[in-house]
Amino acid sequence: MNRNGLLALQAVGALSILVYPAVLVANVMSIAAQGQTFKRSLPWVLLSFYPLMWFVLDVFAWRAMARGAIRVAFGLSSIPALAGLLVAGIFVSSRIGLWFGMAGIGKRSRRVETYRRTNLLLDSILRAAQDTQLQSGPSEAVEQALHDIDSNPTLVNVSTPAAGSPLNVALSALSISLDGTINDGIEHQQDRIRLVRALVAHGGHLNADEARDLHKAWVLKRALFDGPVRTATENRLVWRIVTHDRGDSSLFNPFTDKFPLPRDGPAGFLLKEDEVPLLNRATRLHGTPLYAALLDDAMDVCSVIIHAGGRLSAKEQHDPAAMAALQNVFERSADLLLAYSGAPKRR
Questions:
Q1: Same domain for 322 and 251?
Q2: Distance from first CA to last CA of the chain, Å, rounded?
Q3: How far apart are CA 99 and CA 131, in angstroms?
Q4: pLDDT above 70 covers what percent of the chain?
Q5: What's the whole-model pTM score?
Q6: Highest mean pLDDT pick, 27-36, 61-70, 116-125, 328-337
Q7: If you placed Cys at 64, which of 20, 71, 73, 83 could pair as Cys (CB 3.0 to 4.6 Å)?
Q8: Are 231 and 243 in contact (CB under 8 A)?
């Protein structure tokens, strides 16, 4: 009886291993997140080895059973089972809370009312973005959000300290890669893009702080962009930058040995000779090579482009987000400021 009970308990604990692939992917993404440190990522590293921990606990449980320590055996085997049940309970609770919140019931409804007192569009857009994740068909929440935008044009630029502007909330739900690829299910993303376009059509814009965020400004540009992305044919140098192709042949050094190409380790960006005429050719979506490098926050690419003569276009120089990103580069490297301005390089 005790052996059968222990087997059943360990089987319950082993169910948590079924979701291990998804857990591992989530852990890797958390560890690789921008700004992550070793100390902050350590819990995710340890969590990645939980199947091994479960195995060790089960082995010790059977050894305890063999010694007659039945309580110890069941106690050790209860840890994986309780952990799995706890995670399942949290997941179910969060789903129920989300569904109730979308119906205006429970704790989420109180957060809804908080938003409604400041700007009801914020909650409406958040609810629509979440609804696109829960279903694959037409979303009533998206249609309701579009109706709310049409009915409340005076609220499209009302920001809150926590959420920012309605347009910022709508953009935050979008998943777009640097090369312009729209991710996470084209149907879901198109619904979110409809929200962005509806806000812009009613005069919506990012607030002053948000407008200085280059990535956010570019995601907005991509959401409003019509037609296929032709950056690869418009300027192959820009395409190399946004696809992280560092180059490995036909290298060009525009400075002589006195001013070697800046490198950032073995993966430093390498400019090709036939790409020099492309240094200041802008593309429709990704702009100039320097704009693309700023968008990727790639200091090694910015260094090569600036030293080789690449500059922002006149239009980009009037973009507060692009200029803020360029100023950040200059603050990190005074030599690049001198090179950009044409001043002699400091000895």
A1: yes
A2: 83
A3: 9
A4: 75
A5: 0.62
A6: 328-337
A7: 73
A8: no
- Note whether 244 and 167 are same-domain residues: no
Identify whether residues 139 and 183 lie together within a single domain.
Answer: yes
Q: Is residue 104 part of a domain?
A: no
To the nearest whole number, what is the mean pLDDT of the chain? 79
Spatial neighbors of 195 by CB under 8 A, at least 6 apart, are 125, 128, 129, 142, 145, 146, 149, 170, 173
Report pLDDT for 338: 92
Domain contains 12: yes
**Domain limits at 48?**
2-99
Say if CB 196 and CB 125 are below 8 A apart: no
CA 38 from chain centre, in angstroms, equals 20
The per-residue pLDDT for 205 is 95
At which of 224, 239, 273 does a domain end? 224
Residue 180 φ then ψ, to 5°: 100, 0
CA distance 172 to 183: 13
Collect all residues with Cβ–Cβ distance below 8 Å to 35 and sequence separation of at least 6.
none
Instruction: Report the C-alpha gap between 30 and 135 in whole angstroms.
Output: 26
Calculate the alpha carbon distances from 119 to 24, 148, 149, 312 in Å. 38, 11, 11, 37
In three-state secondary structure terms, 110 is: helix
Burial of 161-194, coded b for 16+ CB within 10 Å and e otherwise, reads eebbbbbbbbbbbbebebebebeeeeebbebbbb
Q: What is the dihedral of CA 216, 221, 224, 229, to 10 degrees?
A: -120
Q: Percent helix, strand and coil across the chain, each rounded to 5? A: 65, 5, 30
pLDDT in tens, 151-209: 999 999 998 888 899 999 999 888 899 999 988 666 678 888 999 999 999 999 999 99
Q: How many CB atoms lie within 10 A of CB 37?
A: 7
Domains contained in the chain, number: 3
User: Are residues 164 and 193 both part of a single domain?
Assistant: yes
| Contact (CB, 8 A) for 157 and 203 | yes
Q: Are residues 12 and 42 in the same domain?
A: yes
